């Protein structure tokens, strides 16, 4: 191993994945880990940063072909930018991984990187006769390659399938549903995903629409039967079942609004399945990780996507604390919003209106095009905002305190308590049943006791600064100075401010001032949603981790005709929330391009597959030409002691 790194001129700590030989024999595994430990030395970072795995846990030992199996696995990991899992119920404590930079990767995870150096992987292979190999691999510099959707195995596409139907009338839609049901019953070997793709490719047209999110074939059959019942029943315009059956005979109409959440919506492994499945999502987390990888003892990617094994309870707590903090909290939610907005853009979904809650306003400004920055400019702005925050905090200019979430009581009653104690601030008016207070600990303790005595539901939040109060005036001024260097353009639609409950002013000077003001003024989310509704918004999509804003919107608008749907649900780390979102948009007539789920369409007869490069020749052999090749392959295989079966 030392010779390999010396010859390559590379540093072992710069590798993100090591594919171990993994004999499965205790002495052999301990020997390999000891050798890696001597090579890598002690852990340099707070958390381990080099994934360790062995493909033998998945496929068994391939004897002479074991090394090439590991090479294939590592190559695919680099190509897809995914850290593949290794089957292991319990990591042996005798290996001593907790003292090394290594962790056993037991889950499929996005390979978050973003550093100046490329992703790198190493492969161990040890022969019975004493031939030991250590191969070093590096990702290709020429871009992302083919769409992941064309190549990922089914287990990485978990989260069900989306079946869509459209027709001019109810009878036409019923006919489509019956044909799909018949096909499912008569062709039990056909994958549900194949039917879902065929329905999308061959979809009809019309305002009468159905979308079904199904986990597997039996679930799809059951839900299609539900849909037939709905279509046979009373002629309601729209119907939505919690189980994933969406029917609309008349689109809701109105404008589409994107809502971006702020801090406290982040959580560990947020959007992990989307980052595995869609490169555009992973790239935004790469962006954030690259900004601060060397500047922080726990890199952003390590705190957001912590190793699934080899962590102590203290290390888990430190990673969670870092993600809950003001710095990474706001940064992580920002990149999650940018990632989801970019993903929805790939699906062809573009809103008419934008609104950001708290620091989610930065997402709204960027997504709408009102603030315009390239990647380098955005990286510089994020770094400078972080630097300003740290300097002001170190200088004691951002007074600490306690945030208290309050629900189940009228805001009018709380205003009386606020007037009685000037140290208390209303930071967020979220909806009829939830708002946030801030103040020093004694004041929060007193108001907490008073509200609890009146039956209110109160929860202390982990963050400790009074965002959206006059106490943050120094930060607002510092950020205003930074925004002076941001270009202000013409937005694609209308971005709204949550502190004015009105559209952002189009003039650059006023727009920058309004963007900075949100750090020192209260969030008026309830008023803002009512203003959006008055201005024609009927479909509200929460573009960020967790579905908090979606619940707020439903509470604010209550029985008024509207639809509020989230992009993510922390209870389901798969593609299910995305499919429910796309189903909702589809049935309400919002243009959606589902081909992103399936890759390019099949090639026409006589044409090469779009997955094959035109530079790769297709070799056709007749029987006379094939026989010598067949005999050569079998001869080589026999010399290698590999069992061979041949199928023409």
Element layout with pairings:
Elements: H1 2-8, E1 17-19, H2 26-40, E2 50-53, H3 56-59, H4 66-80, E3 82-83, E4 102-104, E5 109-110, E6 120-126, E7 132-138, E8 161-167, H5 170-186, H6 192-201, E9 208-214, H7 217-232, E10 238-241, E11 245-248, E12 255-260, H8 272-277, H9 279-292, H10 300-304, H11 313-324, H12 326-346, E13 353-356, H13 361-368, E14 371-372, H14 375-394, E15 402-407, H15 411-420, E16 425-431, E17 434-439, H16 441-453, E18 457-461, H17 473-483, E19 487-488, E20 494-497, E21 502-503, H18 508-517, E22 523-524, H19 525-534, E23 537-542, H20 548-557, E24 563-566, H21 576-587, H22 595-598, H23 623-639
Parallel strand pairs: 1-2, 1-6, 2-4, 12-13, 12-23, 13-20, 16-22, 23-24
Antiparallel strand pairs: 3-5, 6-7, 8-9, 9-11, 10-11, 14-19, 15-17, 15-18, 16-17, 20-21
